[in-house]
Design a protein that fits this description.
Blueprint: E1 6-7, E2 13-14, H1 18-27, H2 32-41, H3 46-57, E3 75-79, H4 94-100, E4 108-110, E5 116-118, E6 121-126, E7 132-137, H5 151-161, H6 170-173, E8 178-186, E9 192-198, E10 203-207, E11 210-214, H7 222-225, E12 255-261, E13 265-270, E14 284-288, H8 294-302, E15 308-312, H9 317-321, E16 326-341, H10 351-359, H11 363-371, E17 375-377, H12 400-409, E18 416-423, H13 427-440, E19 445-452, H14 454-460, E20 466-471, H15 477-484, H16 499-510, H17 514-531, E21 534-535, E22 538-547, E23 550-551, E24 567-568
Parallel strand pairs: 3-14, 3-15, 18-19
Antiparallel strand pairs: 1-2, 4-5, 6-7, 7-11, 8-9, 10-11, 12-13, 13-14, 15-22, 16-20, 16-21, 16-22, 17-22, 23-24
Helix pairs in contact: 1-2, 2-3, 10-12, 11-13, 16-17
Length: about 575
């Protein structure tokens, strides 16, 4: 018997799982947040999702009241690092995307409320089995160079994201659109070294404004993946024009680059074409680089030289709270850092040694030392309590007797000397590294910290045998696991490869029911924790700050800047 097709009031097909989500919300099996997040991923509009939730819970969508009527004009000045701005598909810092987000846009937008909404895509639809995703693109959008935005642009972006020669981390997020190929290189054991590339037919141009994705397995997070910061949509001519957006600016956004100097300044002004997305109030944005010293940015904010700062370090939060005319914004996040080991390189290819190191760690104590206890202790599996699919495993406990026994079993009964590479960009990272060093010492593990400038660390972050790497927030745990620990993906800095783990991750990524997905994630988390690919000290809450005159601004958990509706009440 054919399945009954459900349609909404406008005649649009509704995914057959949506009625089940309605029942789960009504019965209390899921909360309002999970209902909103999942229904919108399945293609329900945010307005319809909020309305449906309101009928059940009595809590409708209440737009944030504006303090005053928005005013048009003015240039917002913000302090953040001004970094390279060439190929967005290869970005490895959020700040890079904040610069280009003024002119390049995304198919979707995941807001501060964790709800994913259409952007360049007007709507989307998922097949019943979550293997086919159809994106309907907005019409009437122009690029700065006069081109019409359409399916050719989107197909070009997917094609280059999944081209191994580009080196985009997006290859990990969209691995269900890839296939293995022989790179022609050999592993240490002489076997062929396999890579990933886009499989034939994975992306289809249906018509000028419709694109369809064909996946080899079910994936729920496809829309959220499309707001990961390296997925900004570039023009179909991007590769032919040098693969550098800073040298050939061409966007669909409301602003256009004016000045750019790495380590100094980025400015943009209104783009010449009318903006398709409605009224935008700011005439432009100016990013000023105040270097590695966070107090320089805070001083600039206090003196009025800038209107907003990218981040307020935990040690300076109380100071900023006391500043007149400044408002601080804090978001619970899945931002973290991991002291990850390259598991294929001695001595870290010895799992027993890695487990001995883990037994030395008191994660709660590190949170208190390095981040004043603000956040959550890490659990060595990179799935955060804020993630909807998170499963609370039994807490890890510091056990030096166990650590010494394991160290002896690993062949290092007399102790071992190790070195941890870390960068000096954040005081809390150095504090966490120092705490790890102190906690390893009683077991006979002598750790030397190799502190280096951030730029130097990021040149070797995928190569160092033992390094402390920061990871930004992703709304789903499976997203960061796909980026960082799936076999063969570009950002797999630990070299970890395990077919059983990949299979469990596939299962978790495909399950619609969050309660059922959580059961699989229990296995995923326990598997990764037991493998001890990394020591993860903490999850951190993140704060930013802005002058009172910066209106309709909010903290995004990934520190994305969404300036389109912000205005200056000067």
């Amino acid at each position: 018997m054919a399945k009954k097709i459900i349609k909404d009031a406008a005649g649009k097909r509704v995914h057959p799982y949506v009625p089940e989500l309605v029942e789960q919300l009504r019965s209390g099996k899921i909360d309002r947040r999970e209902f909103l997040r999942t229904t919108t991923l399945l293609g329900v509009s945010a307005a319809a999702a909020y309305a449906a939730a309101g009928k059940i819970t009595g809590e409708g969508f209440v737009p944030q009241a504006r303090a005053a009527t928005p005013k048009k004009g003015g240039v917002l000045k913000a302090s953040q690092r001004v970094q390279r701005m060439d190929d967005p598909a290869t970005y490895d810092w959020v700040q890079m995307s904040n610069q280009t987000r003024t002119m390049l846009e995304y198919l979707v937008e995941t807001g501060n409320d964790n709800v994913t909404r259409p952007y360049l895509a007007e709507s989307w639809e998922a097949s019943d089995d979550l293997k086919t995703w159809t994106f309907n693109l907005r019409k009437g959008i122009k690029w700065t160079n006069g081109d019409d935005f359409g399916a050719d642009d989107v197909v070009h972006n997917f094609t280059r994201w999944l081209d191994p020669s580009i080196g985009s981390s997006n290859l990990g997020l969209f691995s269900a659109m890839t296939e293995e190929y022989d790179t022609g290189e050999k592993k240490d054991d002489g076997s062929p070294k396999m890579g990933k590339k886009m499989k034939e037919g994975a992306v289809e141009k249906v018509d000028d404004h419709t694109v369809r994705l064909h996946l080899s397995r079910a994936v729920l997070s496809i829309p959220e993946n499309l707001f990961n910061y390296p997925t900004a949509i570039v023009n179909k001519r991007f590769d032919d024009e040098g693969k550098d957006i800073s040298k050939k600016p061409n966007g669909t956004g409301p602003w256009m680059m004016d000045q750019f100097a790495i380590g100094e300044k980025f400015t943009c002004k209104r783009a010449p074409q009318p903006y398709w997305g409605g009224e935008v109030y700011l005439d432009g944005i100016e990013y000023i680089d105040h270097g590695d010293d966070p107090s320089a940015a805070i001083n600039a904010l206090e003196s009025g030289q800038v209107d907003q700062v990218f981040e307020v370090p935990i040690a300076l939060v109380d100071r900023v709270k006391g500043m007149k005319g400044i408002k601080i914004y804090t978001a619970d996040t899945a931002q973290t850092a991991v002291a990850r080991m390259h598991v294929n390189e001695a001595p870290f290819n010895n799992k027993t040694l890695r487990k001995a190191m883990q037994a030395c760690i008191d994660h709660q104590k590190i949170l208190e030392i390095a981040y004043q206890g603000v956040g959550k202790p890490g659990e060595d599996h990179h799935v955060a309590p804020i993630h909807p699919e998170y499963f609370a495993l039994p807490p890890l406990k510091q056990d030096y007797e166990k650590a010494k026994k394991l160290l002896a079993e690993a062949g290092h009964g007399g102790g071992i000397d190790l070195s941890l590479d870390c960068n000096n960009s954040s005081a809390w990272e150095i504090g966490a590294c120092e705490a790890i060093k102190e906690q390893l010492a009683p077991a006979g593990i002598n750790l030397t910290l190799n502190v280096m400038p951030g730029a130097q660390y990021w040149d070797l972050w995928t190569k160092t045998p033992f390094g402390m790497t920061t990871w930004t927030h992703r709304p789903l745990g499976v997203m960061v696991l796909n980026l960082a620990y799936r076999t063969g993906v570009p950002w797999n800095e630990s070299g970890y490869s395990n077919a059983e783990f990949d299979k469990l991750l596939d299962q978790a990524s495909a399950i619609l029911d969050v309660n059922e997905r959580r059961k699989v994630m229990e296995k995923v988390e326990a598997f990764l924790q037991d493998e001890v690919v990394f020591i993860q000290p903490l999850w951190r809450a993140v704060s930013t700050a802005a002058a009172d005159k910066v209106m309709d601004f909010g903290a995004h958990p990934t520190a994305y800047h969404l300036w389109h509706k912000v205005w200056l009440n000067a």
